[in-house]
Amino acid sequence: MKKIFVVLIALCALFALPTRVMAMNEWTVIVYMVNDDKDTVLENANFRNLGYLKSYGSGENHKLLVQIDGMSSGSSDEQKLNYKGGSRLRVEKDKLIDEGVLGEVNMGSPQTLWDCLKWAQEKYPAKHYALVINSHGSGVFTWWGEGSVSATEPGKVDFNPDRKSGRFVAYDHTDKDALTIFEVAEVLKVFSQRYKNGGKFDLVAFDACMPGSVEVLYQLRDACDFMVGSPETTPISGFNYDAMARFMSRNSTFTPTEFATDMAERLNSSLIGAWKTANSAQLVFAVNQLAMQLLNAIEETSKNFGLRNQASFGKGTNYWDLYKVAEAFYRENSELNGASNRAVIKQMGKDLMDAVEAARVTRRGTISITWPEKADYTKYRRFYKALDMSRDSKWDEMLDLRQLGIK
Known about the structure:
It contains 14 helices and 13 strands. By secondary structure, it is an alpha/beta fold.
């Protein structure tokens, strides 16, 4: 009798659970599409991407959601959904379900990103979450908005998750704002604390230009488990959304590692990789060890290092292939070969190469490190100093000495 009573109590408790808990998905994937640009090129590309997504839908046990921000003048896709400002959509096979019109919304605000993620979690709770930020990007530096390179307080985050709703990526042309990496990390950390029961947001993918840097990966170490992104400028057509939706529709369950790997490896660029944020501490430790030795060598020899066989990304020379930088020191292709710590620098280069390999979960993929010319570093130095990697390593101090002569 006692056993029967216990079973009945358990069944009653089970049926008393909220419906949304009972119906938890395996994955909820949110695509954050920032189309509010000065022209329609990005918007038209993303209308095509919406078509790719709905060709497969979200698949069994998953939900595929989109928050899209159209131009302030208004526009519509082939389904005649009005995109004057922001809208939310649920993607099903062969159709887009309207989940609400938001009106003009600042997609470059951390509050808007938070409201989007909170809506997705409350309406479609899941075991795992992925966020794809589809927008223009500018590497680790952000040009617009609060906390940007031109702000009085670079790195500042004005974000309150309990505020009622009303730059690094997500450039919103109407509001002249963008999400900084500080803002993205803070929003995801709060999401993890409230909704992931001690775990972290599973996957963040940047369908944008040049977010794939060691500084970004390290800033996200407490915010998510995996990052997908490119160190280089990316085509306006963006990610392979067709392949992403097909993967979701054909697999009822998959791990964050499998999803991140498949997403990165199906892109038409060997530069784009999937990276494990938990290994970013080891990566930054290796950067720090190398930087300390470089500081000693520069002071001893009164020479700056110049490296051969390097690769920079974007139109300027702010971002460099971290693996190639490390390899150049390992191969002793610098101007510091007369330093007394030459052998140690060589070993630090090899350790950094190994750390890059350990952080990458895909077969291919490149990650960058910031190493600007003197003029750019002078302009962006305060912003760079606000990054966690600058706080926890001496790479910024090495830049101070090499680029500006500051000890």
